[in-house]
Design goal:
Largest sheet: 5 strands, mixed
Strand content: 5-15%
Number of strands: 10
Strand order of the largest sheet: 1-2-8-5-3
Radius of gyration: 21 Å
Structural class: alpha+beta
Order of helices and strands: HHEEHEHHEHHHHHHHHHEEEEHHEE
Number of helices: 16
Distance between the termini: 61 Å
Shape: globular
Bound molecules: protoporphyrin IX containing FE
């Protein structure tokens, strides 16, 4: 029966270049609609705030394909060894995997903030050396800052960073994605062995220790070897592009809203609130990962049959006028509470405190250093990467003074 469901036609380039426009049209006309997004099969796109929160918190929508209705499916990506992480898991596995990582991750963040400031200052110094010329802020600043911070947190040596900064330019291309999976799996297999032989004070060492001591003691609270590998892969995949996009798109939003930029310069204590509004307004992630229905589930007045994929459009929820009045207006002082740029429910972004810290450091330091910064091309000429999941610029040419 469900094969009769006809997906809404999609103009891929229009979606990539203006996801907010695409989502606004769906939200108004068909807020729960079957679509065929690039890189996905048919999935039900859910675009209203209330429905997105429902989908993200209803346990009848699952991530672990072994729970597929009528017998379960084998887990894709197992061939490359990077599948068994928390974002592919449901409770109780999810609870266990997240707890182990959280325990190693969170206590390390406080010490990272001064380090992020140093890294930002170093990058700004390098940019100042080319002052006067047009510079790609994405390549020179928005990208290296979070990549360096996360690598230091994980304990990835500087010499290896180029090897793991395999930006997935073709996310929606399965073969390209698998190539990246294989490369990162090979790299992390080597790193795990190195840290096991010689542990450091980094997150990878802490997770290797958590894995090995739990295995020795037969504890129920550890990680298996494949879970450890997959977790490291997840941290890199979830932690790079997302934050890069927030810093780059956040800077663009400020440059194209000079009154808001001036407001922030006049009152730097607005910075944490500004980052929340930039998260809501720019939504570095278009939609959360797909979930499937384990039974028939009513969502927003539509019954989604069992065994269907569902995509909760978090960026659309963040622009839903029913939740955020005048949603297309950037207002650094607005009440952004409840925005879903980091998701909602059990899979709420584990890295949110790190991402917030990085964005505050990045934007705060950038505005101070280059008060005369301006866009070097008309905003309409900027191109966005052709990726269904992520909403990120290809480049951001600016003049520093
Ligand atoms: C601006 C930056 C970021 C944004 C917008 C973002 C967004 C998100 C979203 C929407 C989810 C939920 C996905 C879903 O439910 O399908 C998520 C989950 C996750 N994020 Fe982030 N993220 C960011 C940065 C980071 C960073 C820096 C890290 C860590 C290195 C990180 C690690 C994770 C992890 C591990 C999960 C899975 C949590 C779970 O399954 O319980 N993220 N993120």
């Amino acid at each position: 029966m469900t094969d009769a469901i006809q997906p809404v036609p999609l103009d891929e380039d229009a979606y990539y270049q203006d996801p907010a426009g695409f989502f606004a049209r769906l939200r108004e006309s068909r807020p729960v609609a079957p679509v065929r997004m690039p890189g996905y099969g048919r999935a039900w796109m859910v675009t209203r705030y209330a429905d997105v929160r429902t989908v993200l918190s209803d346990p009848r929508l699952a991530r672990d394909v072994r729970r597929w209705p009528g017998g379960g499916r084998s887990r894709p990506g197992e061939a490359t060894g990077v599948y068994a992480h928390m974002l592919h898991a449901d409770p109780p596995d999810h609870t266990r995997l997240r707890r182990v990582v959280q325990k190693a991750f969170t206590p390390r963040l406080a010490a990272l903030s001064p380090r992020a400031e140093e890294i930002a200052a170093g990058l700004l110094d390098e940019m100042a050396a080319v002052r006067g010329d047009v510079i790609d802020l994405l390549g020179a600043y928005a990208s290296p800052l979070p990549v360096t911070v996360l690598c230091e947190l994980l304990g990835i040596p500087a010499a290896d960073r180029a090897r793991i900064t395999v930006t997935v330019t073709a996310y929606d291309n399965r073969a390209e994605h698998q190539r990246v999976e294989r490369e990162l799996a090979a790299y992390f297999t080597e790193l795990i062995a190195a840290r096991r032989a010689e542990p450091g004070d980094d997150l990878v060492s802490a997770l290797v220790l958590a894995r090995d001591s739990a295995a020795d003691e037969g504890a129920a609270d550890g990680l298996t070897g494949s879970e450890l590998l997959a977790t490291l892969y997840l941290l890199v995949m979830a932690g790079f592009d997302t934050t890069v996009n927030l810093i780059a798109s956040g800077t663009l939003a400020l440059l194209t809203h000079p009154a808001e930029m001036a407001r922030l310069r006049a009152d730097p204590s607005l910075l944490p609130a500004a980052v929340e509004e930039l998260l809501r307004f720019t939504s570095p992630v278009n939609h959360a990962n797909d979930r499937f229905t384990t039974e028939d589930v009513p969502v927003g007045g539509v019954v989604i049959p069992a065994g269907e994929w569902v995509l909760p459009a978090t960026s659309s929820a963040n622009r839903d006028p029913a939740r955020f009045p005048g949603p297309d207006r950037l207002d650094l002082g607005r009440d952004t509470s409840g925005h879903v740029a980091f998701g909602y429910g059990i899979h709420y972004c584990l890295g949110a405190p790190l991402a917030r810290m990085e964005a505050e450091v990045a934007l705060g330091a950038l505005l101070l250093r280059f008060p005369g910064m301006s866009l070097a091309v008309p905003a309409e000429e900027l191109r966005w990467r052709p990726v269904s999941l992520m909403n990120g610029l290809e480049s951001l040419p600016v003049r520093l003074a």
